Amino acid sequence: MAKSKVKWFDGKKGYGFILNPEGGEDIFVHFSAIISDQSFKMLNQDAEVEYELDRTQKGLQAKGVREFSLSAGVVQSESAAQGAVQKELNQQYH
Fold it and tell me: What does the DSSP 8-state code read for residue 70?
């Protein structure tokens, strides 16, 4: 598995990019490729992640993505952030 950092991830749109550790184009990541116990899957900017790299017709794409440097405080703030985004999404669609 490769390791790198999250460049950015938009929880509302459900995708983002991971920095390519070899330079060059960034690596696309879709929320469905994230391995997490949370029902609302997202990644924190600058988080350390491990992933499998897939080359597609559209470019590099990550799959099996997992944050691996989470401390208890980060997990709690991630859950709070996910809750806030989920609440906003629920308000938009209800």
Answer: -
